[in-house]
Recover the amino acids of this structure.
């Protein structure tokens, strides 16, 4: 089993997938933009060979270089778990004539408008929306759709350039901030709670399923610095309140022609109980979500993903034991972390439920909370009871404070 894996070193969790591939017996050929000398030994030991490319963003360039590099060698799979490379991996599969999802299928997971069109064509509920390229497009679409609306890039990530707009005036203001975005989607604003639906699929059918809840909704968490965003996996997937969302997720996978591997979907539950599709990627959720799923079941999805994509088997137990909550902290003030208040008290009282405590230590420079959800570090905890897990997460969110200056 010979695997070309794009970006084995970055984002950091890609190193875990590389390890997983090696552990299930694959020979791994890594392709990245970092010099080979800069790769950590813990990663290098799992790579059989490595190609440095000038830019991973240059799809055609990567395809040509990898094709030339592999000449005379066998390849069985070309894989990527980073959103911005899933299409490049599909191009390479087509070039090599390999099995796996086609470019067209992957586009359904990457282009937000096409995705909604395909999901809607299967009779599933999506926000009403329009693709807009110009100011005039946007004004016309807004008149047709009616407020409140969300304006966001077609190929967005991390809630960047995403705005809720409630009036013509707000639309003009948001458009003014989006001039650098080529194509946007203007869509019906869905009021309600927001969840994920994550899977590891074999032939489009989930071998593993997860649901997590965002507290609060990402758009709110991503626009208010004082909030400590919480994401909590839901242990009990059999509860009636999740049935419609789980069903929606399964239908979406069918509608988009999912193949093997991870998916990460977001969906809304309106106060009426109606569920609405948000978006989906054919890659794992970022920001430690895979770690959270691992802590939920005490398994290693990095390795199970590898087993699925290489050998078509998922062998880990899927019994869910915990609700795993991650809390991202953002320091008050700029510059370097000077003190952390409330942490030792929390650990003394509730430390038995904490599985990771990775707040930036005193002295380190703050991260840019707009650029990375992980902000100034996180605490990951778990509990078999959902309400208790949320309560503990809320204590971390409100009673542990980091200061910077
Ligand atoms: N139609 C909508 N109605 C209500 N809220 C929305 C809608 N579309 C997006 N949002 C909010 O904006 C957030 C970001 O939108 P979306 O998930 O589509 O973009 P993204 O940038 O790919 O997000 P991320 O990478 O953070 O998952 C959503 O998580 C949700 O909170
Ligand atoms: Mg999203």
């Amino acid at each position: 089993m010979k695997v070309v894996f794009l970006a084995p070193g970055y984002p950091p969790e890609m190193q875990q997938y590389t390890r997983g591939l090696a552990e299930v017996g694959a020979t791994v050929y890594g392709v990245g933009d970092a010099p080979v000398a800069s790769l950590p030994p813990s990663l290098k030991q799992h790579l059989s060979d490595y190609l440095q490319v000038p830019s991973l963003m240059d799809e055609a360039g990567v395809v040509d270089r990898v094709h030339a590099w592999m000449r005379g060698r066998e390849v069985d799979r070309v894989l990527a778990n980073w959103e911005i490379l899933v299409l490049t991996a599909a191009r390479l599969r087509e070039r090599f004539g390999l099995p796996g999802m086609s470019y067209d299928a992957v586009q359904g997971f990457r282009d937000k408008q096409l995705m909604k069109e395909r999901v809607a064509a299967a009779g599933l509920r999506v926000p009403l929306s329009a693709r807009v390229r110009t100011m005039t497009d946007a004004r016309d679409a807004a008149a047709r759709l009616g407020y409140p609306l969300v304006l966001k890039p077609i190929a967005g990530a991390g809630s960047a350039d995403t705005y809720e707009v409630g009036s013509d005036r707000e639309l003009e203001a948001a458009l003014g901030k989006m001039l650098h975005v080529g194509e946007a989607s203007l869509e019906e604003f869905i009021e309600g709670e927001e969840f994920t639906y994550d899977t590891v699929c074999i032939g489009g059918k989930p071998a593993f399923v997860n649901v997590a809840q965002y507290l609060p909704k990402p758009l709110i968490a991503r626009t208010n610095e004082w909030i400590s965003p919480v994401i909590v996996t839901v242990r009990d997937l059999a509860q009636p309140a999740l049935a419609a969302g789980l069903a929606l997720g399964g239908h979406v996978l069918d509608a988009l022609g999912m193949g093997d591997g991870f998916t990460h979907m977001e969906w809304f539950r309106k106060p009426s109980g109606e569920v609405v599709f948000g978006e989906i990627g054919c890659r794992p959720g970022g920001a430690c979500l895979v770690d959270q799923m691992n802590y939920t079941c005490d398994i290693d999805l990095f390795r199970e993903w590898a087993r699925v994509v290489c050998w078509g088997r998922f062998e880990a137990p899927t019994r869910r034991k915990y609700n795993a909550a991650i809390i991202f902290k953002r320091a008050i003030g700029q510059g370097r972390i000077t003190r952390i208040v409330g942490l030792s008290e929390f650990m003394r009282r509730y430390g038995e439920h904490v599985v990771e405590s990775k707040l930036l230590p005193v002295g380190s420079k703050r991260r840019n909370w707009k650029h990375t959800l992980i902000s100034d570090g996180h605490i990951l905890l778990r509990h078999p009871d959902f309400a208790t897990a949320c309560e503990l997460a809320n204590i971390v969110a409100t009673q542990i404070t980091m200061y910077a200056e």
About this structure: The radius of gyration is 21 Å. The chain is about 35% helix and 25% strand. The chain has a mean pLDDT of 96. The CA atoms of residues 221 and 335 lie 21 Å apart.
